[in-house]
Amino acid sequence: MIRPTLKRSIICFAALAMPATAQDFSEGSEAREWGLYAEQKALFTATVTDPLCVLAGDCADNCGAGNRQVVLVREADDVMIFPLKNAQSAFNGAVADLAPFCGQTVDVDGLLIDDQEIGAMNVYMVQRIRPEGGDWQRANTWTDDWAAKNPDASGDGPWFRRDPRVRQQIEDEGYLGLGKEVDKAFIADWF
Length: 191
What we know:
This protein is α+β, with helices and mostly antiparallel strands. The chain is built from seven helices and six strands. The protein has helices spanning about 5-15, 50-55, 95-100, 140-150, 160, 165-175, 180-190, and strands at about 40-50, 70-75, 80-85, 105-115, 120-130, 135-140. A five-stranded mixed barrel has the order 1-2-3-5-4. The protein is globular. The N and C termini lie far apart (about 70 Å). Mean pLDDT is about 85; it is low at about 1-20.
């Protein structure tokens, strides 16, 4: 028979060993839901920073000036959040929207996916950004930023069909990334 004090100790230890319930950051969020698995509205304050600088000491001026991924270090719990998408429906990245705030504290509103079963930890889709003392702004500058960087890629159709980097990659590696010979066999077999 287990003594009552030992039994209480075992119960307390078991409770400590269980994973902590994630904080709820949904209060006040105006984020538009996408219907993605495990998405949650999330509004929080964070510092925009360069993850390579934080994790490896490889620091670039101004968080890489839009050429590096940026992260949000959440003020409430010092957790690193990975903003991989902005508010645009084309699942564009969030760097163009967040990089101008490098080193600054901002409020962000969007969708957070944090689910160990699917391997998504602290993945964020930022929809709005508010700098300290400023107004909310939509996180939707990626397409305009891309167009400004690629003035010769104008035309009809989605941006990725006109993007010089994408076109060069296809030229070098084929559509599947396995070479043009593999592409020929695949196209012949499937189309």
